[in-house]
Amino acid sequence: MPLSALPDSNKSIALLSLLVSVLVLTLKYAAYTVSGSVALGADAMETIINVVSAIGGLWALGIAERPADHNHTYGHYKAEYLSAVAEGTLVVLTAFLIGREAIEGWLSPHRTLAPWAGLSLNAAATLVNLGWGLTMLQAGRARRSPALVAGGHHVLSDVWTGVALVVGVALIPLTGWARLDALLAGFVALNVLRVGWEVMRESIAGLMDQAPDGATLDQIRDIIAANGQGAIEAHDIRTRIVGAMTFLDFHLVVPGSMSVEKAHDICDRIEAGLRAQMGSTLVHIHVEPDRLAKHEGIVFWPRPDTSPVK
């Protein structure tokens, strides 16, 4: 689905994700019912968590889109990280449940009932997940939404699992090795555990206000440098990204004789440049006179030499 066809609201996208998850769960549960495969049952169990996670994501995005109020003066953006952490926790728990089913299937193997019918239904669910997972990932990155990106990674992890299961379960009747079913379920458990850990790690980093990657920091510095003409330097630059909002503060050194109005114009120009390229940005600039220059950070032009001539 092209991004232009998606709703403007992230909350509406999360609602579509919930509907897609319910459709995929229906297909995968039907695949498990007709086949009796432990591996396909594990895949259906993992999809139940997708539905629960989609409900949590819908709630979180609804909170995150609320405007700032007197109790949350910086907005509600971190609600998305809470949703992603909860999703990662559920995914990890699901991995252990699937692992238990895999162990039981290994100890008490049984033949699948109708593997080809089950595989057809599972393959259909995998194709639905592929299309929607790519759409969510693109939308999340374009809109800088941790909840949508986490959901997209989670859905795409189902795709690779689905492909492996279709191939693996197809080999069971061909090889006659019943324990392959439990082995595939174990593979599903390990993959789910990996995805859950990645989602939790990235979300916790966001909650801890981890600095963005080096490329983003370089982009911010380039924007300040391109729009700070008239100032001397910018130092002590600090930034964090929370959902779709970039928080940035730094010290801007200007000549001591510069008027407040002119210094304010420079700040306005820098803020406009940041918002034009970074999207929603909350900028705090502390203006300082040239005697407080540190000669570090972004230096626009050298401080004039005021020492007496010898």
UniProtKB/TrEMBL annotation:
Q: Which GO terms describe its cellular component?
A: plasma membrane
Indicate the transmembrane segments per the record: 12-32, 38-61, 81-98, 113-134, 155-176
**Where is it located?**
Membrane
Q: Does the keyword Transmembrane apply?
A: yes
One GO molecular function term of this record is: ferrous iron transmembrane transporter activity
Pfam families linked to this entry? Cation_efflux, ZT_dimer
Residues annotated as domain Cation efflux protein transmembrane:
15-208
Q: Return the SUPFAM superfamilies for the record.
A: Cation efflux protein cytoplasmic domain-like, Cation efflux protein transmembrane domain-like
Topology in the membrane?
Multi-pass membrane protein
* Domain of life of the source: Bacteria
Keyword Membrane among record annotations = yes
Q: Where is the Cation efflux protein cytoplasmic domain?
A: 212-289
Keywords, A to Z, come to: Membrane, Transmembrane, Transmembrane helix, Transport
Q: What processes does the entry annotate via GO biological process terms?
A: intracellular zinc ion homeostasis
Q: Which family does it belong to?
A: Belongs to the cation diffusion facilitator (CDF) transporter (TC 2.A.4) family.
For this protein, the record's NCBIfam families field holds: CDF
Q: Mind telling me what this protein is named?
A: Cadmium transporter
What species does this protein belong to? Acetobacter peroxydans
